[in-house]
Structures are given as C-alpha cells and as structure tokens.
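User: Can you predict the 3D structure for this chain?
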Amino acid sequence: MRAGSRSPRPARLLAVSGLVAAALVLSGCASDSLADQYREGSNKGFIAGDGSVTEINASARGEAIDFAGVGENGETLSSSDFTGEVLVVNFWYASCAPCRAEAADLQKLNAQFTDKGAAFLGVNVRDQAANATAFNDTYGITYPSVLDVDDGSMQLAFSGSIPPNAVPTTLVLDQQGRVAARILGQVTSPSILETLIRDTVAEGS
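Assistant: Here is the predicted structure, written as structure tokens:
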C-alpha cells in the first residue's frame, strides 16, 4: 500500500465517531420528534414542539425552581420576585416564527391575570437587549424577559424538572415555584393556557 493512501482513513473514522456521538447525545436529551428535527437539518432556526400539554399533580411536582437573571432593561429578576404567585414562563427569541405567532395571545393573558394571582416572565434564549426590546415594542409585550443567551442559566435552572425542549415552550409554576404544567411548542389555544393558569391559581384558594 502506498504511504499516501493511509492518511484519510483516521479522518474518516473520526468523522463517523463524531456523528455517532452526536446522534447519541440527541437521542438522550430530547424526545424522538425533537431529535428528528435536529437531525433533519431543516435550518428553520428553532426546534418546534408539537403543542402537547403536560400537567403535573401537586403531589408529584419536584422542587421549587430557583433562578436569577438580567432583564432586557438591565434589571435583576429572580424567583424571589414572584413568591406566592403563579408564574408563567415563556422561552422565546425574536426571529422564532411560532414565538411571534403566540406573542399577542400571551400578552392578552398577561393583562388578564395582572393582579389576579399570576405573572408572566419571558426567557429570551438568543437575543441581546436591543432585539428583545424591539420585539416587545412590535407586539406590545409589557411583561419582562430575562436574557439567557450568554450563560444559559435560566435554561439550566429548569433542566432538572420538565425541561423546555423546544422553542417556544411555556411553563406554569405554582405558588411554591414548582412546575405545574408545560406547553411544548407554540400556544395555539390560549384557552388551554388560561385554564392551566386558572387551575393553578385556584390551588392556593
């Protein structure tokens, strides 16, 4: 065998090993449908959930989520700011088409529940402050968002409970700060999210 014919073989083996490792990581970290979207390489810029709703009985909920981050206006936001309230947490970013589609509905629900036992908080997973603020101006969003693009600390904080495996994902936290419900993907039926919020608020009555 010529000496020059040997060098490509290790490179090919490394490439194959890398692909296998990547496939194992994806299969272990996401549901099959989400992993399929990663592998398909559709370049749509987001991993779309299927809109499925998960509810957790109060007796089966995990620990309270402890989080802190910096908002688009430079303010510090943390779980302690929402003590005793139901908190709706929406993971989003500005160029995500489903995030834009659900924005008006989320804002309506935010206005509906203001001072009625529930608050809203966004978690922007990709944008810096200027883009997040421009999005809020365009869609009339009045609730704050934590900017999570630099360190991912918000996504990490929720990863041990019911993780936000898609963007957008909306979580409903109970008055104790535990995840009570999740909508994986776009909120296509605001009435479902409204019911989830109302039921969680009623738990504290």
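The chain has six helices and eight strands. Confidence is low (pLDDT under 50) at residues 1-48.
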